[in-house]
Amino acid sequence: KLMHRTFTPRVLRNDGGFAGLFALDFSQKLFARNYKQPILVSGTDGVGTKLKVAIAAKKHSTIGIDLVAMCVNDILCTGAEPLFFLDYVAMAKDDPTLLEHLVQGISDGCIDAECSLIGGETAIMPDHYELGDYELAGFAVGVVDKQNIISGKSVQPGDVILGVNSSGIHSNGYSLARKAIFDVGKHQLDSYIPELQSTVADALLEPTLIYSRLTRTVLSHYKVKNVVHGLAHITGGGLLENTERILPDSVDLIFERGSWPVLPVFQWIQKLGGIADSEMEHVFNMGVGFVLIVRPFFATSIQNMVKNLGYECWPIGQAAQGTGKSRFAK
Prior knowledge:
- Helices cover about 30% and strands about 25% of the residues.
- By secondary structure, it is an alpha+beta fold.
């Protein structure tokens, strides 16, 4: 039932079969896409050592949202529409209750991502995993018309960088966060942290935001004009590395520190661990989970559009002539 609630009429039911089936196009007018040159886009990921926090806290119903987010947010960066998702769950022994909690989160994530959960694999491996441990991996497929692919290669000097808020740590940097919080700070999962107004567990397990609705709304609004030149999902490597990977060789991105609010959870972790600014910015998203690089004339209207969807959005820098690097302004 957790799969079926994510289905659209483009899913061909094949319950109990060896594979999931999905119609790329659909004759019914509401769902018809009429692709000219459809390009399939795929991505796969896990959630890293955030799993250790979920296992220790015995809270398993949202980690699946993180799994979907880590896969889907990546394929969104091409301008793709997410189509379907597959999961892989491995655990030490058959545990239907745990599995249901995990798939509940995956199902919730798929609904938020506007894609269908059409299959998965559950592996029981008692010789490989300790009792209570499990592993999650995910795989997402989307589609984009060839003429609408966003690669970042059209980024040009003068373009405005818009940063969209994260919900917190998302799903990267948990090895460093855990070391600062538990090893150095000596906190427990149920410790209440006044500056965060939450327990450690709740702060660390805040689900990763999924940006499907945001990209769909913005890109569908500008169907003819080439307004969005680049998209980046800010994960491990931080703001600089994840934006630099899409840049043409002749353009730099220059970010302005202080142009967005750094979330309290990052300030708290940095203080606890005595972590240098450079390492924080390399490991964490620092409050910016997604980036749009847009033509300057449209920047304000796109910013307002994003805000109207319930996100925070800030101009955080601009593109300039350069050598394909991302950096902070001096």
